[in-house]
């Protein structure tokens, strides 16, 4: 900046402020402490240029300069998982950065902002860091006092597909909806059986031939997602048709086939016998156990 200029009374004079490297011009002031900005019709400010109009007396003005700092932003995650913009900018001391935006690539998600390259110190929105955006993918750094680097973490997104196996009876049950899940996050699925049906277990194929983890029946089921997954719930009827023979000490009296609840062992049921084309009710019997595969 030119230290001084002479001008005739009523004339005008122009000053230009030029910042050195690592400094930034802040503004023009009328006091040495730089607390009172120039104002009024006698002053015309155009960026770092000041015109003083209608000069009728000695005038002193002050150009304020402050250090500048660099704000860097880096993308972290698998190769080509996302970008940050702008990735570098210069901010005057005490000023604020422009909005830094993290944009994930297809098949990836923005996970969060961090202050370290290993992405262990998560940034929390406050007065210094302000986080916004629909997924928290926008960041502003306020009251900058030094160089700063922030890191945007991106992760793979996996799809969890759910359903009911094709060999389950129609209307036997349902499963909670599938989801898209960030890599390493937990997912929970729930199977709900309808009346007179029961949940058998989880399978990784829709035909119900490949048990999940060798035969998992945990319900609800929670797991960590590290790849695309398919989980299908298998249901079966809670009733089976079975044949029971009733015998005395000398011979078989009758054989009966009917449907019985798998949970009904130990309960008593009436039976019907047909003899000479005539049906009659037999005494109740307690079915304590059965042989053969009934479920």
TL;DR?
The protein is an all-beta fold and 295 residues long. Helices cover 0% and strands 53% of the residues. The protein is built from no helices and 23 strands.
Q: What does this 3D model show about the protein?
A:
The structure is a single chain. It is built from no helices and 23 strands. The termini are far apart. Strands 2, 5, 7, 9, 12, 14, 17 and 19 form an eight-stranded mixed beta sheet that branches. Strands 6-8-11-10 form a four-stranded antiparallel beta sheet, with no helix packed on it. The protein has a three-stranded antiparallel beta sheet with strand order 1-4-3, with no helix packed on it. The chain has strands at residues 11-16, 23-29, 43-46, 49-55, 62-76, 82-85, 88-92, 100-104, 108-114, 129-132, 138-141, 148-164, 173-175, 179-182, 186-189, 191-193, 197-203, 221-224, 229-237, 239-247, 252-261, 268-275, 278-286. It has 295 residues and is mainly β.
The count of helical stretches stands at 0
Radius of gyration: 40 Å
| Apparent shape | rod-shaped
Helical proportion?
Answer: under 10%
Series of secondary-structure elements, N-terminal to C-terminal: EEEEEEEEEEEEEEEEEEEEEEE
Give the termini distance in whole angstroms. 93 Å
Low-pLDDT ranges? 262-270, 279-295
Strand content: over 45%
What structural class do you assign from the helix and strand content? mainly beta
Main β-sheet, in a few words? 8 strands, mixed
Number of strand segments: 23
For the residues shown, what is the average pLDDT? 86
């Amino acid at each position: 900046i030119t230290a001084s200029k002479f001008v005739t009374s009523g004339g005008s004079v122009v000053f230009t402020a030029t910042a050195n490297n690592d400094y930034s011009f802040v503004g023009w002031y009328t006091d040495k402490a730089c607390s009172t900005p120039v104002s009024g019709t006698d002053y015309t400010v155009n960026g770092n240029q000041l015109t003083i109009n209608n000069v009728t007396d000695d005038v002193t003005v002050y150009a304020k300069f402050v250090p500048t700092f660099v704000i860097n932003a880096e993308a972290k995650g698998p190769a080509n998982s996302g970008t940050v913009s702008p990735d570098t900018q210069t901010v005057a001391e005490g000023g604020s950065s422009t909005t830094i935006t993290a944009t994930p690539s297809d098949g990836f998600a923005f996970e969060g902002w961090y202050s370290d390259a290993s992405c262990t110190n998560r940034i929390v929105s406050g007065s210094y860091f302000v986080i916004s955006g629909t997924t928290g993918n926008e960041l502003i750094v306020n009251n900058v006092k030094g160089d700063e680097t922030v890191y945007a973490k991106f992760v793979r997104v996996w799809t969890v597909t759910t359903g009911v196996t094709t060999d389950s009876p129609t209307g036997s049950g349902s499963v909670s909806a599938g989801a898209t899940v960030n890599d390493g996050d937990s997912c929970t699925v729930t199977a709900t059986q309808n009346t007179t049906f029961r949940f058998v277990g989880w399978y990784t194929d829709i035909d119900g031939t490949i048990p999940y983890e060798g035969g998992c029946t945990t319900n609800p089921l929670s797991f960590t997602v590290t790849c695309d997954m398919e989980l299908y719930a298998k249901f079966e009827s809670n009733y089976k048709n079975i044949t029971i023979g009733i015998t005395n000490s000398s011979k078989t009296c009758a054989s009966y086939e009917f449907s019985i609840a798998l949970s009904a062992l130990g309960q008593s049921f009436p039976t019907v016998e047909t003899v000479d084309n005539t049906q009659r009710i037999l005494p109740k019997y307690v079915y304590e156990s059965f042989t053969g595969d009934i479920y």
